[in-house]
Amino acid sequence: MHPLTRRAALAVSAAPLLLASIRASAQSDPLPSWHDGAVKQAIVSFVSRVAREGGTDFVPPAERIAVFDNDGTLWAEQPLYFQFAFALDQVRTLAPQNPEWSGRPPIKAVLDGDLAALAASGERGAAEILTATHAGMTTDAFAASVAGWLASARHPRFGRPYERLVYQPQLELLNFLRSNGFKTFIVSGGGVEFIRVWAEKAYGIPPEQVVGSSGSVRFRQAGNGAPELVKEPKVEFVDDGPGKPVGINRFIGRRPILAFGNSDGDLDMLQWTAAGPGARFAAILHHTDAEREWAYDRQSHIGRLDKALDEASAKGWTVVDMKRDWRSVFPSEP
Amino acid sequence: MHPLTRRAALAVSAAPLLLASIRASAQSDPLPSWHDGAVKQAIVSFVSRVAREGGTDFVPPAERIAVFDNDGTLWAEQPLYFQFAFALDQVRTLAPQNPEWSGRPPIKAVLDGDLAALAASGERGAAEILTATHAGMTTDAFAASVAGWLASARHPRFGRPYERLVYQPQLELLNFLRSNGFKTFIVSGGGVEFIRVWAEKAYGIPPEQVVGSSGSVRFRQAGNGAPELVKEPKVEFVDDGPGKPVGINRFIGRRPILAFGNSDGDLDMLQWTAAGPGARFAAILHHTDAEREWAYDRQSHIGRLDKALDEASAKGWTVVDMKRDWRSVFPSEP
Q1: Any signal peptide, and if so, which residues (chains A, B) (predicted)?
Q2: Interchain pair A210, B272: CB under 8 A
Q3: What is the ipTM of this complex?
């Protein structure tokens, strides 16, 4: 056999093997929606270093705590926080049962579809809308209203259920971390009772691993003697900015070794995580993809990323560029 | 062979088998420190019912949440709460660095060993002692002081480290629950930052599964720019009485199916747990054993068990009688 023929024959006979090996490698890629590059490499390298027993960066499984911001980090947050979209829809749903609402300017603005008046009501107006829709009911009734809304509401731009606007690459990252012994937590400025309703189904994160902002809750015996928990119109804890490391301490009681955020509200959490001893991973998702999602940072009202972007650059934290680093953004539709 | 001889021969040849079977059964008893009886049977029956797939009482693993009070339920609480024993020792340890303390009556009473004066200072005095020893330091420094105390302090009656006054039967129960897919939580009136230091080693319960009372914590940048969390002299949350179901909702976000307490401070948690749908288990540890531990209930200043004992009887909750139901109380000394 001529050497070239032989090489060709070998190549042909090896082809199925080669193909199988490529397939195996594709299957074993834990992050298929992440483009190959420095960012993906940094993630995989960190995880394998802390999980390698006997290695200098080894971290015992119990200490492999990973924390993720939610809005803008695990799911989208434009054109307004999804929890606020829920609140606006609830105002419209509940208005017939609450005729007295028509005398309250921010609520009237929502019912009239008068966005200018709503914007003019500012933070106090937003707080009034959140209180009206998030308090004065049992925790069970509130959870049921969130579940009902998620089942029917659609995002104005994408026409999808909000739960289908989670980020596919982050779902893969959460799974990759868990399969390497990490315990994954949400640490969100959003309301903890809102997120817990759907986080387990959407992210595989159970209620007890969700840290968030909360209102006061009161325990009482209902008329029929059954005990119940009632949501009260009083903010109890704001899990944003310096509240994030405080919330981590309060709920988790252990400093994370990995933190992932997307805005200045995550900066303290990233600092707290990065400043611990041993191997650390701090990452920021930079929204750079107006075509597939949105592009915003320093000037945005929602998810402003300014100081944290500077600090990431100064401290060498990982900055994920959505457009460059993500092969896909949302899960493909079934 | 004579029939009797044959029977004897058979008996002799069967003896090793029989012995092996007894040994296997002893090894497979998950609760060897619990006497056989109605209480042990109720526990084993409940756990196997909720864990049996396809059974009418089946509960998915994610919902198998078990909550335990700590003081008097998982470890002893006499002659005074161990956390308060820590605080008194800390007053003595820290007094030389805090000469101004001598002007504060409750602290002076501790330093003088004047228990009558300390008692006279009442709840305000106790709060002053707790504040002096539990605030004004970083969370890391506090955890180190607790660990240091545990390593050296000995219980006045038993001469053991306090961590060795955990209840052996409860350690077995926690393990039994976990091996049946339960997630075990502490829900304690004690300080969460105190318990988290040693709960993982003592009970196999990680920090993120400890719910407790807490003081405010503030995030700040230290002089050297390193971020730190500082404990402030302000009570933030009291995880006792109606605070227990509130704490469960806040930290766990899911109603437990099993709750275990020992005092009236656990009553609301037991009610909240027992009132949920499906199979439920509510249990109270009744301290009835003055010889091996202590006997106290309706009249006790610490761990008073009065209303909850009546309600347990009315509702058919499980009441564990320490003297009758526990083969041993504390772990055997190494």
Answers
A1: 1-26
A2: no
A3: 0.89
